[in-house]
Amino acid sequence: MTRYLWRVIARQLHRSRTLLGLTVLGVALGVASVVAIQTLNQGSLLAFDGSVRAISGQADLTVTGALPTLPESLLPIVLGDPDVDGAWPLVRADVAVAGRPDLNLDVVGFDVFAPVRYPLLDAAATQQDPLASLTAALSQPGWVAVTPELAAAEGWAVGDTVTVSSGSRAKDLVIGALVDFRRFEPLAPRRLAVMDIAQAQESFGRRGRVSQIDVVLREGTDPAAAAARLQAALGPGARVQTPEQRRQDASGLLAAFRLNLTALSLISVFVGVFLVLTTVQASLVRRRREFGLLRSLGATRRQVLGLVLGEAAALGLLGTAAGIPLGWLVARQNLQTVSATLTSIYVTEGIDRLVLPPTVVVLGVVIGLVGALGGALLPAWDLARRDPSRLLSPLAVHDAAGRGAGRLALGAAALAGAGTLWFAAWGHGLRFGGFLYGFVLMLALPLLVPAVVRAACGLARPGGFGPALGLRNLRARLQTSSFAVAALAVTVSMMFGITILVGSFRQTLVTWLDVTIRADVYISSESWQRTGNDAFLEPDVLGTLAGWPGVVSLEEQRRLRVATVDGRPVWLNGLRLTDRPLPGVPQADLAGRLPLLAGSPEAAVAGLRRGGVLIGEPLARKAGLGVGDTLRLAGPRGPVALRIDGVSYDYTSEGGTAFVAMDVLTTRFDAAPPNNAALFLAPGSDVEATVDALRRAFADRPLVIRSNRTLRAEVLAIFDQTFAVTRTLQVMALLIAALGVSVTLLIQAHERAGELALLRALGASRRQVFGLFLGEGTAMGALGLLLGLGGGLGLAALLILVINRTWFGWTIRPAWPAGDLAVQAAVVLLVAAAAAVYPASRARLAHPGQLTRDDL
Amino acid sequence: MGDDILSLEAIGMTWDADRGAGRTVLDGVDLRLGRGEAVALVGRSGSGKSTLLHVAAGIAVPTAGRVVLVGHDLGTAGEEARTRLRRDHVGLVFQFFHLLPHLSLRENVALPGWIAGDDHARTHERADRLLGRVGLLDRAGDAVGRLSGGEQQRVALCRALLRGPALVLADEPTGSLDDRTGREVMDLLLDLTRQEGGALLYVTHSRELAARADRSWLLVDGRLRAEAAA
Ligand SMILES: Nc1ncnc2c1ncn2[C@@H]1O[C@H](COP(=O)(O)OP(=O)(O)OP(=O)(O)O)[C@@H](O)[C@H]1O
Ligand SMILES: [Mg+2]
């Protein structure tokens, strides 16, 4: 039987190589989208891990602060613990490189005399004469070691000077050594740079404060117990975590982002299953006599089933073999934008090196196999259960599909109804409820397809050799046509769902920017985007700005990463705002700039002045807080309780955001200069001219000066970049669905050879036959669009109203991106028509002399 | 001569001639069909009758000789021109009817009109008139699947005659019908073709049916031999 299996596979492969090739390609695309997304998802975690391991090495615990920095004075307390074998402070700064807008260095300042060996020192030591390096690091101002990879990419050599900046402070660094951290930690960030801790403090940090203290415990110590004891000793201003806890924090931060992409990539797999279904069924119909013979020769049902599934498995494996490398390529292609999203939206480590984790390879194989077998199961089972004497004829299958259409539609209604009831009653309360409900809807949609195709095509009254005749033909081959239409419908649902979501989100964001971005000029620093914490604007800068001609008001803001007492990260924003009415500048009125979801603007403004807090919507939703509640933040000297005076729409971060008056921030958290400033200009001022003048005045400072207009454009650009990867997924799903159209029409070109020969005999030209098939492909596209529009609306509603609220916490006002949808609809039709070109060119070769006895 | 609907001159047909030892099926066939004439073609299975019809319809290109269809030399016409000539001047009837199962009677009959891009209303009007002539008008909207063989062939006759072709080619039109039904269909075929003013060339295995033609030819060894005329 096995030998037979291989022979059959070989023969099939040869006879239907185009068909199988297209199917393998479809499987490959499905596997590729999962592999790509998982590689990127894992990449984001691995990048974080890599940076933790490269920096903290074999540290068992890491002490960080309630604030981004903590006092050096905690070090003796740590070292005083009996179980602590060693501890060393690190100062970290994310600095911008002058002239390289996309490049940030992750500067780590370390104590070269730290008593413990860890990768940094190991790395430094192996490069050159270790002692010489260490002496230089201490004595030479600006000495820094960078990775050879970065140096090569930037064309830096030892001895070169590189200007970097943190906030408004610029500093010249001298490349003192090249250190290959990857010899110790393969995923160490490329942008890692190390220097002496005192210099780092001096240049980028603050005297007496460090970013973290890494701790190595004595052999045999229980890390959890030690952590608890240290936490108690250090007080509420510090946070003691194991590397695993830090990893979990990072992974939790990205959970929603990762889940969304995963769900989208699974849609491609789902679409791919339909493709396999189509092909396997066609191949079985073609070979029904062979199976009839096998069965009458005594092959059991199980053997026939096994044979068919074996072939499907081979198909799946071939697809997987192509899909994994393809997925890897897709991941690489999207690396840049995903990495940019991670750094700009999630402020976590970007991915600068992709690896293909073994788990992802295994997942790819599993998806490919399960998808192919899943697609084959139904037709295989159908075949196996039939009497050998009555093995299905192609039209019997289509008749059955015709009769089954009504029942399937009822099934779809029942499934969707049950899903809706479940969701209304229980599902909406579950975190994964929205995803499950969406999945149920996407399952119900294909079941509806045969009935819709039958009804829609039944309306067609052919009055000529045109599209209506094509529709009739689709209806006559309901079983094959339905799979292709279903695949398209699911794809279009996904495309439209996401497009409506993104369009609505963008519209919401624009409205929100209109409300909140009211000042004329915005000033921040090159390093600010990544590190609000320590990218300060120095007083001289603020002074110059305040006195600039035409400036009627200067507002300051400081952003600080803190956490609630239960560990939820919060971006705390301290605001020093215009609090007097500015004649002629109504847009400066604070109450008018608060996009409040709950609470009144006047009360919120008054509350802010009294020391209250305004929280962003995601925080309110995720922490279950509202106006009148208390927000409890972990402060440097213990919990800080703030009364919530308003909840505002906020799209800056899916984590928490909170706004307080600047003096609350400085007195209860951390006194430091602001990170950015906004200017209101006198009525009638030329904003762009002022921006140009300011840029000239600060030409030698690492400042970013933007007009209202450019800031807005940049925010929207970041937004668009965030969805770049979803566009790739949309394209891949559409390609698979297009393959479905190709495969279906190829099968029909074969199954309908007699009909085509007849048409040619009756005088239809080759061009007309070609046109007929092209029309049928386009008709499938149109039907897919019709169904997908319904599915897309459902998905969009689910995404906007449910999934976004639970996972991201944003209110998105539904909008109708008609232009985008129209373009996509046109693309779907074009792609469907293009997918029909090859089958049509095969169909047009039908010869009028080919009519045989049982062709029709 | 100018009145000939179909003129075959010295037609030779060797299948797979390009592949060395080809199989010569026709070898110097001459045949003329005048307007309104009915000619029967008989011969043993495999003698090349269908091949001859295909040649006449411009479906197959002979390896030798000249085919002139209503004044057009098929030898000089390209594939597209031959298709158009077939569409405009030839009606085809097959042994196995070859109706499209997913179309109604009327739609099957109208199909050649659709292909030719004729006026929709006129085509359907004419389809209905022909269906009325074969007694199937009351079922014009039904699917063809449930028709008997004889009924299906009557629909196929209507389809062949829809556009008033100058030449009707019928390849064993009664071959899969019982004797009585076969006679009825043959009657219709002859009557209708005559009434519509077309010439008819039909293949049959039945001497009785061959006798209904104006002339009848026997195809042997690739050549036509006259049979007793009616
Ligand atoms: N397209 C083709 N390619 C190669 N050989 C062909 C082709 N069509 C017909 N033949 C061969 O030509 C010979 C004549 O076939 P044809 O179908 O014309 O016979 P026929 O007289 O119609 O027979 P029947 O009465 O059985 O229908 C046969 O031997 C057949 O195998
Ligand atoms: Mg024949």
Structure description:
- The complex is a heterodimer of chains A (856) and B (230).
- With 856 residues, chain A is an alpha+beta fold.
- Chain A folds into four domains: 1-60 and 246-395, no CATH class; 61-241, Barwin-like endoglucanases (Beta Barrel), CATH 2.40.40.20; 399-517 and 714-856, no CATH class; 521-684, no CATH class.
- In chain A, 58% of the residues lie in helices and 16% in strands.
- In chain A, strands 12, 13, 14, 15, 16, 17, 18, 19, 20 and 21 form a ten-stranded mixed beta sheet that branches. A six-stranded mixed beta barrel of chain A has the order 3-4-8-5-7-6, surrounded by four helices. A two-stranded antiparallel sheet of chain A has the order 2-9.
- The longest helix of chain A is centred in the middle third of the chain and has 44 residues, at 301-344.
- Chain A is elongated.
- Chain B is an alpha/beta fold and 230 residues long.
- Chain B has one domain (4-226): Rossmann fold (3-Layer(aba) Sandwich), CATH 3.40.50.300.
- Chain B has seven helices and ten strands.
- Chain B has helices at 49-57, 79-89, 105-116, 120-133, 149-161, 179-195, 207-210, and strands spanning 6-15, 23-33, 38-43, 64-69, 72-73, 90-93, 167-171, 199-203, 215-220, 223-226.
- In chain B, strands 6-7-8-3-9-10 form a six-stranded mixed beta sheet, with helices on both faces. A four-stranded antiparallel beta sheet of chain B has the order 2-1-4-5, covered by helices on one side.
- In chain B, α6 (179-195) links the parallel β7 (167-171) and β8 (199-203).
- The radius of gyration of chain B is 17 Å and the shape is globular.
- Chain B starts with 5 loop residues before the first strand and ends with a strand.
- The A-B interface holds A 395, 462-466, 469, 472-473, 475-476, 754-755, 758-768, 847-849, 851, 853-856 and B 54, 57, 59-60, 79-80, 83-84, 86-88, 90, 92, 94, 96, 98-103, 107, 111-112, 114-117, 120, 124, 159.
- Bound molecules: adenosine-5'-triphosphate (ATP) and magnesium ion (MG).
- Residues 49-50, 171 of chain B line the site of magnesium ion.
